Amino acid sequence: MMTLDKQTPALLRVQDLQKNFQVRKGLLGRKIQTLKAVDRLTFDLKRGETLGLVGESGCGKTTAGKTILRLYEPDGGQIVFDGTDVVGASDKQMLALRRQMQIVFQDPYDSLNPRKSVEQTLGEPMLYHRIVERRHLRERIAYLMTLVGLPTACMNRYPHEFSGGQRQRIVIARALCLEPKFIVCDEAVSSLDVSIQAQIINLLQDLQAQLALTFLFISHDLRVVKHISDRVAIMYLGKIIELGNTSEIYATPLHPYTQALLSAIPVADPFNQPERIILSGDVPTPTRLPKGCRFHTRCWLKEEICLREEPAFGEVANGHYVMCHLVHRSKEVSG
Ligand code: SF4
Question: Fewer CB within 10 Å of terminal CB in the chain, N or C?
């Protein structure tokens, strides 16, 4: 079981985080099943770091991001942000925490109020949180617009007057206006064209260097995650099944699920195509997870122990954690 090193300076510590949803049925809303969307998630995030959180659609990565920000109330576990207990925080403490922990969603059009100009979108939160005096407000808005690469002459325009990439720049400026330390980027470039994606990723990297930001970068796009992340965590049905340095995981994935995911990344060189691992078998219903390793229904390496015992999420090399019986056994033998 992964336990966080208390000595490591981390901006964010997440330990055994749980988020369940109740599946209800009938007129009386009778609870029939529990869906464990996030199941004992444990990781830390250092200041100035980008952690990529990847996995198939429905694996719980977006729920994890929202639960860390307490947009969903956690059902168990700990979240400590910059020394403050997020789970036990009072409303007043949460107000201060929300300034420091922001989110950028996938669809910039959905996440902007179509009736508010850029000036209102950026100005209102800054006045509410007393970031700036009213007399300096336009100056501050102009600074933020320049920071994200928007022309300041467009301050009075509305979201529909911008392109998709420009709208995402407004959303990023809104996230930055409260001077946060930490931003959850939830599929932040997924809805954009490839050329625009590259611009927004470069912008995020520049802003990180300039403002010492820490990112949790949630995405299903393994190429984007490889480009932007220092470390990467792979999620499968609510759990992180592998976590480590990006270069190490992409060069030597150890968990069979990670191997299958990475084998699907297209390679430009036609003479150096990796062998694609096609997963067969059923994806278990999240409300009825199988006993043992939850990946065993699709794993071509499974053994008898995989069907009855859940593997530990253990460290196999410095900072490289894996949840697989076979990997741990081979490390014991070689170690
Ligand atoms: Fe496959 Fe067993 Fe490892 Fe699970 S524990 S990934 S079933 S080998």
Answer: C
